[in-house]
Amino acid sequence: MPTRTRKGRKYRGSRTHGYGKVGQHRDQGAKPNRKCGRHKHKWSYVIRYDPDYFQKKGFTSWKSLKQHTKTISIRELDEITKDQTAEQTIDLDSMGYTKLLGTGKLSKPLTVKIAASSKSAIEKIKAAGGQIQTEEEETETAEAAAEEQEEK
């Protein structure tokens, strides 16, 4: 857009640019709930009476949620273990993964230890002849063992 056709060029030299006398349109009085000076000379007011004034609201980005959950698929797990021939236990928790997803196929039986996994991942590991140990199952077995000891 050319500069000469902008509205601001029309008002050069007029001091108030059509907003009347003495600083009208300078503060944010027309905008609801956004008052001027809250980050400057009215900061003590914000601290005392309105501490949530600058609080973030709205939706959480899926990108930030994805950062907290580090996932691995069955395809990647199969690629990691393709060199091993014997059945082995893989601790994905110690490798930094938090969830196992069911994309891909598993070619050998594995015992996998991880915090969480999808239903399809559990089915594929059991279909290949392996086992999966999640935190939920460990807590359930620990609770069942504690109940058996109490009964004795």
List the helices and strands and how they pair.
Layout: H1 7-10, H2 43-49, H3 62-68, E1 71-73, H4 74-80, E2 89-91, E3 99-101, E4 111-113, E5 116-117, H5 119-127, E6 131-133, H6 135-151
Parallel strand pairs: 1-3, 2-4, 3-5, 4-6
Assembly type of the chains comes to single chain
| Total count of strands | 6
- Helix vs. strand class: alpha/beta
Strand residue percentage: 5-15%
In the CATH hierarchy, the third-tier topology of the domain at 69-142 is known as Ribosomal Protein L15, Chain: K, domain 2
Q: Work out the helix count.
A: 6
Radius of gyration: 31 Å
Please identify the top-level CATH class of the domain at 69-142.
Alpha Beta
Question: What is the mean predicted local confidence, pLDDT?
Answer: 82
CATH architecture of the domain at 69-142: Ribosomal Protein L15, Chain: K, domain 2
What form results from the Cα inertia axes? elongated
Main sheet: which strands, in order across? 1-3-5
For the largest beta-sheet, the strand count, sense and barrel status come to: 3 strands, parallel
List the uncertain runs. Answer: none
Helix content: 25-40%
Q: Write the H/E string, N to C.
A: HHHEHEEEEHEH
Question: CA-to-CA gap between the ends?
Answer: 85 Å
Notes on the structure:
The structure is a single chain. By secondary structure, the chain is α/β, with parallel strands linked by helices. The protein has a domain at 69-142: Ribosomal Protein L15, Chain: K, domain 2, CATH 3.100.10.10. The chain is built from six helices and six strands, in the order αααβαββββαβα. Strands 1-3-5 form a three-stranded parallel β-sheet. Strands 2-4-6 form a three-stranded parallel β-sheet. The longest helix has 17 residues, at 135-151. It is elongated. The chain starts with 6 loop residues before the first helix and ends with a helix.
